[in-house]
Amino acid sequence: xxxxxxxxxxxxxSSAFCLLALTACDDAYLSWSPDGNSMAFIGNDGLHFADxxxxxxxxxxxxxxxxxxxxxxxxxxxxxxxxxxxxxxxxYLTATQQKEAIELASYIERQIELRGLDALDKDExxxxxxxxxxxxxxxxxxxxxxxxxxxxxxxxxDDIVKFCALEIHRLKVREANVASExxxxxxxxxxxxxxxxxxxxxxxxxxxxxxSESDLYDLMLMPLEPNANxxxxxxxAAENPAWTPDSRNVIFMExxxxxxxxxxxxxxxxxxxxxxxxxxxxxxxxxxxxxxxVQSANSDIHCLKDGRILxxxxxxxxxxxxxxxxxxxxxFSFKLGEHFARKLMSTNDxxxxxxxxxxxxxxxxxxxxxxxxxxxxxxxxxxxxVDTVEIKETFKPCWRNADELxxxxxxxxxxxxxxxxxxxxxxxxxxxxxxxxxxxxxTAVDGILIEKKK
Length: 454
Description:
This protein has 454 residues and is of the alpha+beta class. It is 22% helix and 34% strand. It folds into 3 domains: 3-23 and 83-166, no CATH class; 233-354, no CATH class; 359-454, no CATH class. The chain starts with a helix and ends in a 9-residue tail after the last helix.
């Protein structure tokens, strides 16, 4: 191959490597157990557990997300790992996937040889192949034709090997203590966006990114037991589904036009997944469309014990322009059997918000955190008032119990023995705060406030 083509190859692989690096970052994460006694904290050095007095465990291991089970003793964890050699990676592929990867590898090599790199870059088959399949195909090429590719790629070869690594995503369960070991429940090739545990702790909803360029997500249902496999139950338009309090039904946002996933017109839909005996239904009916709305990928849903379904949506009246359809979010309440949804925030409050999703409800279901970062606003679910907690630059807020908020913030008084971030508990009733991370190691908290690219 000529020098120009070699340079284009280097550019293609280097650009792809950078793209992967931007999508592989994890955010710090705070989550309190249902009884409010233990916190799971994902810092820069991995997963920790802590109590309300600030006693922090050692590093448990890597984690990307964590969800508590109802018993407050166990957590479900998602993480990922990579395989950078075809010999190792193919163990995680089915026989059909292995065959597809080898066929794609041959196709890639043939297109570069016959038509040049520019043609490959515009080739629809190459562009539309799932990411795992492209990675596996390149691993196969690197392992079976390494000397040839090393000459073409040159000094960037090692970086390309890292870029091509096959990423495997896992769902694990473990006791909330240092001594226990994590038990893998399942692994797959699609990125796990989130996991929502049923109120009875027996099942998980797993949200996965589709392997195609679609903006939709695969919604999977999985028993929380060894050797179980998830079952796909729906294509969803937003990444935050919810369980009904009886653990029998799932509520999610469903795109009205699945062939045009970028539309924000959707329905709030309900799907029955379990019978009166708690067992999975043998067959699922079509989801029931409860109402229609305008959603975003982050639109959230919460089902309360009193029967209300809370959800976030743009507040619009039809007919509407495209700009109006992407307007400010509001929080709505809806009950099964009713013929309308109630708007919970005034127009003025909604206009002053910096986004209301994702939402977090406190343990007695009287207050709701609106949004996630920088500004802390609390919606009172009884009065409808929005209270602004006079704290700015809060990150990852969550509830410890009915009264106490927990969040990360920059340290207010920097000194030689203080870190650049701190974890705070804030009482809504008294306004008092206490910092629980003063004695935590810098490896756990420093850098957690840095916004990371997705």
